[in-house]
Specification:
By secondary structure, this protein is mainly alpha-helical. The chain is built from 19 helices and no strands. It has helices at about 25-30, 30-65, 65-75, 80-85, 90-95, 95-115, 120-150, 155-185, 185-210, 220-235, 235-255, 255-260, 260-265, 270-295, 300-310, 325-335, 340-350, 360-385, 390-410. It is a multi-pass membrane protein.
Length: about 425
Amino acid sequence: MPDQPEGTTTLPTPPPAALGGHRRYTDVFRVREFRAVFAAHALSLLGVIVSEIALSVLVYDLTGSPLMSALTFALGFLPYVVGGTLLAGVADRFPARRVLVVCDITQATCVGLMIASGDRITALLSLRCCLAVVSPVFQGTRMATLADILGDGDLFVLGRSLLRIVSQSALLVGFGLGGVLLIAVSPRQALLITVGTFCASAVLLRLGTRRRPARTTAGSALVGDSLRGARQVWAHRRMRSLLLLFWIPPMFAVVPEALAAPYADDLAAGSVGLGLLMCALPVGTIAGELWAGSRLRPATRERIALPLVALMLLPYLGYALHPGLVPSLLLLLLSGAGSAYTLGLDQWFVRSVPEELRGRAMTLLTAGLMTIQGVGMALAGVAAQFAGVAATVAGAGGLGAVCCALLVRQVRGTDGRDGADHHMTGR
């Protein structure tokens, strides 16, 4: 399929960053290409959620093993690092629209092969790994494309925020809806829905976004180019500091979610209590992002980012008192609201990354974030075996706060090194 019909001219998108003034979420939706990206994101996310639930149930039906069923979820995290490091070069060396469409079609193909694989568990889990390898390339390319569509100013920050809000909202309703869906259809039939959502996302991106050239030319092998890009990002002190500030707080933040089931059991809160504990952190995150994105000006969001990240894990210390259900929910809501720090970080990161490196940097960010959350969940389970749930969450709050404070100090040390982010420390 050609990227553009012959004889047509690609008109440049007006630079949103140059429009000036305090931008709002509604301004982002006025950009036609963003509406297509937003709708495609929602469809892809729906497909991922349905496939995770359906595949987990299918594997459990075939094996009767809770371990194998849980492994299907773990495989959604671990291979991210492979795609995010070895294939990141794809995001810069090919036109972004082509990469996004091919990734969607590849994922739809993988799910289709799951349906056709019969009872072969190895094939199902291998295809699950393939999905997780492709996903960071897709997400990193989409993030870099947002900067092309919305500019690298406030509209980019609000666009990223909207995509995160959709992702957090999916955590609230997606798994519940997926469970209801499996009452009506079999797991394999549910996987057909996933194929449809990935294909619909591909169509939206193909028709709703315009063709842009690759950011860099293919000067070497893909893997070598990807690793070279990762080294360039990691060698730059400011980009490395910001990456760590994206990665480390979520590694500690996921601990209460990973241990929600045993904590609900300790509280004798039942399934309703478990559901509330699982929902509290995403609700706090959504509320914090919406408030910061709609009520605060860009300079204010940047000014409060570092104080927020230094404080966001401190509510977990309250678990040392073995709080009941309601206090625990309040602690999680408060901590989740601190995630609004990411709006400031988004602005600094996109300013720091050279355009020709943007796709690889965004892919590395996505892969690292998903991988380190998986590591955080695994470590939380190990620690809880020895220290108990409440002590593990409180320990994550204390150790995480110390790590965040050290990272804040490191990021402050890079302030102004590239002529950007003069609002970061308020100096």
